[in-house]
Design a protein that fits this description.
Chain lengths: 149, 357
Amino acid sequence: MGEEKFDYAEYYKKFYEAWEKTMSEAIEMWTKSPFLSTREGGEKESEFDPVAYYKKFYSIWENSMSEVLDMWLKSPFFGASLGKAVEKSSEFKKYLDEVMERSLKNLHLPTKSDIDRILASVNKIEAKINDLWDKIEELKTEKESTRAE
Amino acid sequence: MSFQSSYFESLIREAEKAKQKFEKSLELALLNPPEVKVGITPHEVVFTENKLRLLHYHPVVEKPYPVPLIMIFALINRPYILDLRPGRSVVEVLLKKGIDIYLIDWGVPGDEDRHLNLDYYINRYIKKVVNRVKKLSGSRQVSIMGYCMGGTMSAMYTALYPEDVKNLILMTAGIDFKVDGMLNVWGDKSNFDVDKFVDAFGNVPPEFLQVGFLLMKPIQNLVSKYVSFYENIDNEQFVENFLAMEKWINDNIPVAGEVFREFVKYCYQENLLVENKLRINGKLVDLRKITCSVLNLIAEHDHLVPPASSLVFTDLISSKDKETIIYPTGHIGLAVSSKSLKDLWPRVGDWLIERSK
């Protein structure tokens, strides 16, 4: 996933092509539209559907932009920037949690990790009870099959 | 009247219609969305431990096939995507075929569950569920169907306990993580320090995952989806399905920190599973130990788990009876698209029936 694998020149070329394609379509749509025509009435008028034209334009924009963004989001530059943002927010979160824990401890109040520890212990007890139930069931079945024999 | 003025008139008419549609869309999607009922196929909870619930769906045939099926969903998002709503439910299709279905609902991990790791999920939870289902159904073996990360975990379980599994169905399961995919780039060791992240956050916040998934297809997720909703606002069926899907997409849950750390590290960063080097609690997860019947379902347009990531699975196992279906849909479409529910899932049901007698 190294930097050298991503061809930035190719990316900018694709970006330009997508922009060019979308713009040419928009211009073509506009120049061909009967709106520019000075003719009154006629066949062309009834054929013209502005909504269909806009949909076509939107579809071209959607496809070309998706392609370009997909390439950009897969680039190592984006991956590295995203990683950095996550790393810094992790550091900040850790710092905030430490401050909060220290403050609560100083006030002699139970902290979040204290509560989490208690809940984790309750979960362990529940798991042990489930195991014991299973064991009882097993013993019952064994006993019944011995009786039947 | 000149063409220009009639053109403007038609534009004004369209704008008026558009305004009404927009107001209706806004009302339904954001301001006052109607309540959408999901996951309503009749079932009962037959086992619970911590947040996990094991659901057993009420059979709809008199005598279901004897080998039960356990559905294992990913730890991300909710499992009701497999039973979204009547007519959009994999569970419904398979129940009608006579399959006896159980589904693991992992629940919502609390901060106290941050230490639950792959070992706990596989050797404790899945093992416990399999034993319980065997006991309840009276069958010596079960069929397992795992979706996405649940599929990867199902493959791990089957490799560790091959004697338990008669049939294995994988749905878009990542196996080889060194393929060309966005998550593979973002999760790469050089970009993502998973230790630092989990040490700071504990469980993975649902918002983190949701933003990540939205970013993978920003135009489709943030623009096109709503354009399509707007265009189909008068189609009741479309609106109902859209709202059910929106509910599911926004119903994100946190992922237990430790299992996330291990999954990212062992799978995305070190790719140990495909190399048969992954150890869970010291025990090697050797895919070659899988000998049961295997059906590998792959979504051709999957952007989350690229097809190449799943495709390799059948080459790594020892099963003689194995089949791969590459279906022309996306990651979620595999479970909810009307096409796959009409065409693919009845086929999957038949495949399972043949091997569940």
